[in-house]
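Teaching note: in complex prediction, the entire set of molecules is handled at once rather than each chain in isolation. The prompt given to students was simply: 'Predict the structure of this complex.' The entities are:
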Amino acid sequence: MMLKRIKADRWIIAVLLLLLLLPLPKLLAANGLIAADAVNWPPIHYLKRSTDVFVWAVVAVSYDILIGFTGIVSFGHSLFVAVGAYSVAIAVMKLGLSPVVGVLAAVIASALISVVVGSLSLRLKGHYFAMITLAFAEVGHVLALKLSQWTGGEDGLSVRVPLWLANRTNDYYLGLLFLAVIFFTVRRITESPTGRVLAAIRENEHRAQALGYDVTAYKVGAMTISGVIAGLAGVAMATIDTQFAIASLATSGPTIEVLLMTVVGGVGTLTGPVLGAAMIRLLSFALPGLQDISPLFARWQLFLGLIYVGTVMFLPDGIVGSYRTRVKTAFQRIFTPG
Amino acid sequence: METPHLTFPLLVTLLLNGVAIGMLYFLVAVGLSVIFGLMHVLNFAHGSMSMVGAYVGLAVFRLFGDPATGTAPTWAFALAILGGAMAGFVLGWVTERFLIRPLYKRPIFLILLTLGLILVLDETVKLIWGTSPQGLVIVPGLSGTVDVLGQPFAVYRIFLISFGLLMIGLTWYVVNKTRIGIIIRAGVQDSDMVQTLGINVRQIFTLVFAFGAALAAMGGIATTPFTGVHPAMSGDFLLKTFIVVVIGGFGSTTGTALGAICLGLTEQFLPWFFPRFAAVGPVVLMAVVLLVRPEGLFSVSGRRAG
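The expected output is the structure of the full assembly:
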């Protein structure tokens, strides 16, 4: 069993090892184990961008719990990212508390808000649910702008982190650890009996209800797990990534980007959203740099839109989803008699 | 801050302003409402289509005069509205026919598709016209004010109210008194049944989508003398459209008209009485209506009226 799992995961393990080993000299240098000035590879921006990818990959994985494993499309998901980011920012910058207290506050706040938002909005189905989550996110956005003595209003809140967190190498490893822990935890959840019930709800809600499952309770549960993970990603954003909490995090823009990551990678695959997050974040770093070639690249989001439409029309299972189906059908073709 | 005394003439002005803004919201929202009622497609790109209409309208206006000084004949504005509407019509037609149609069986992917369209349309607009806001001054024939109970009231708002009423009347007539209209209403009830009766309901889908986008585009260009043309329009329009349609009930043109006027009035009166809640008020209203009465405030016993 264990061996089979490791074999199935060989790609994930290989990528993890590579990501672990790449900046190892820097880690040693950062913590004074070897001479710091001897190491200038990989460059800082590699570490910075990778950390950013890790954090957004966590958001995408948390979104996949909703869209891929429970079958609900929320437009307010990044609200929880904002809640997490602001919780830690306010705790540290406004109340002078330690970041650890901030993390606890973020977990509690995002859990509470996702239970409230979930139990109110999950009574509605489909499009109505999508719209009410949009409304909640907009309320969150306006509150973040208006309560400026706490949130810094339009300017947002910059977080001054402890010295060891201001180090990009440490941030990189923390981000990687964070993503790995969340990824395997979420996978464990989706493969658990609870995860099977969620999948049953996704496939046929009425049938799950008829079998005696409290569908709404399970959905609220899924939304809470997903909301807390997104909140933690918000904490990560405010501490190891941008070190900033800003109101626009709560708008539909970031949610739409996360949706894109999930869809491009493959809904309900978990590895897909991680891959999607890497692709979309790296594209959004790289494309604006191509402006010298063509002014078209100043509007690089156009390409994200085209990828979006293209994926939906021609590759609805996403990259990982399509890959899995292809491998499966190839397998069947070889081993089917006749 | 002390709230100024609300006199009767001021009340009338606020009321008229609310109705005038409501007319704009009706134009933008009615297409989304009927499209959702008929084909269960929530078109997130509806606001973007409205914005494209506004930009095309501005471009048409530029052919005849300078939008910043308004040195253009009144009919240039009429042509701008027409041009914007035509752009909206074509955009809606192409979108339904080539992008939406293959996906009717997968509702989640329809949402994703229209989200992707937001990015494509908004970024294309920025690519062509840039990101800075562009003004459009009211043309001579529609500028100036008239006296309403001793208060000045903009002629353009009177134009908006009459134009809006005309469009409400037209859509009401088409939906309730014509053959196309009865097919649309039947389709809102049960589109498979309409298809079974030998009517090509797909063609009606395309037509409704195109006309919905055209009306939204008209709304877009008609807003520009207030707000100018800017890339953030699409998001603003989308949220307002959702609020209107949720209040009025999906699929109903009369509901949309009432919902639009309701939103227009709320936006005018809320800052007077509760200035602190002015920004979130409409969104909260939408959330409350969704929770308490998701079929909309103006629908009869939960059924969607024509």
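Point out the following to students. The first helix of chain B runs from residue 8 to 39. DSSP finds ten helices and two strands in chain B.
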